[in-house]
Every structure is written in structure tokens, then in C-alpha cells.
Amino acid sequence: MIEVVNIALALVSIGLGAVGWLAPRYTMQVLDMAPNGSTMGLSEIRAASGALFIGLGLGAIFLATPLAYAMIGFAWGGAAVGRLTSIVADGDASRQKITFFVVEAAVAATLLAINL
């Protein structure tokens, strides 16, 4: 059962990463971001919100060890910390930010709890 959860969450990471990598404009729209005349924003979405998560997911599936899946959890946990920091420091607790935070924290907690 643990292996099924691990692979499923690795595939979620890969799937969401594929959207960021291959559809950065759509991703930016969903995240309420806009390019400012430069392609650097698109590049950042492709890299940090896209291919990075594809690499994490594929790497964990390839290695197939608890620590590899835990690393996905640490990455999602880092995202949750960044999101919570934004909610507090930027003074904006929008429904979208809270939803993203809850999902990020849940994925992180699940992967860390079952693999450490």
C-alpha cells in the first residue's frame, strides 16, 4: 500500500510538473502571474514549477527507495513553507493560497510520514 501511495504522489508531481514545463502560460494564468515583457518568467515556471518536479518524481520512481520518496515530501514541504510565508508576510490569505498550502502540506506530510 505504501508503494502505491508513493508512486501515486510521484506521478502527481510529474503530472503537475509537466503542466508547468509544457504549458507555462497556462500555469502563470492559474497562479495569477503575468510575464512582464521578458521570457524569464516563462523560463522560471518551466524550470522551478515544471521540470524540477518531473525530475523529482522520475528520480524517486527510478530509485524506488523510501528516502527518494521522502525527498519529494521535503520538496513539497519547502513549497508549503514558502506559501505560508507568503500568506503571513504578504498579508494575503486568499482562498487560492490557502488551498495550495493545504495541498502542499498534505503531500509533504504524507510522503514524509510513510517514508521516514
Structural overview:
The protein has 116 residues and is mostly helical. The protein has one domain. It has five helices and no strands. The mean pLDDT is 96.
Please render the helix and strand layout as text.
Layout: H1 2-22, H2 24-30, H3 40-63, H4 66-89, H5 95-115
Core attributes:
116 residues, mainly alpha, 0% strand, globular
CA-based gyration radius: 15 Å
Q: How far is it from the N-terminal to the C-terminal residue, by CA?
A: 16 Å
Kindly give the count of domains: 1
Number of helices: 5
**Tell me, what's the shape?**
globular
Mean pLDDT over the full residue set: 96
Order of helices and strands: HHHHH
Structural class: mainly alpha
Q: Tell me the major beta sheet.
A: none
Q: What are the low-pLDDT stretches, counting only 5+ consecutive residues below 50?
A: none
What amount of the residues lies in strands? under 5%
Count every beta strand, where a strand is a DSSP E run of 2 or more residues. Answer: 0
User: What is the multimeric organization of the chains shown?
Assistant: single chain
| Helical fraction | over 70%
State the gist of this model:
This protein has 116 residues and is mainly alpha-helical. It is 84% helix and 0% strand. It has helices spanning 2-22, 24-30, 40-63, 66-89, 95-115.
